[in-house]
Amino acid sequence: MTSKYVPPPAKAITDAGGKYVVRGGRTVAIFGEPPKPRIAVMVFESMEKAKAAFDSSAYKEAKKVGDKYAKFRVYAVEGLLQ
Prior knowledge:
With 82 residues, the protein is an alpha+beta fold. Helix content is 39%, strand content 11%. The protein has four helices and two strands. Strands 1-2 form a two-stranded antiparallel sheet. α2 runs antiparallel to α4 (57-66). The protein is globular. The mean pLDDT is 88.
């Protein structure tokens, strides 16, 4: 799956201004069950830009391939002001 799916949506995210800070690294459970099998964390300038990235036609087209291989859970969370 990875070779077919990962590059197109990753490009759609970065083209929309997203920056990956976690992308499939090792996950260790401190409390509760860890997410399975992979997790990615991205940072955007705003909630609106995050929503726009995942609503983009480029991302939606790429996700059609990913949907053949996995179930996705995508959340947006407002961060702390830096």
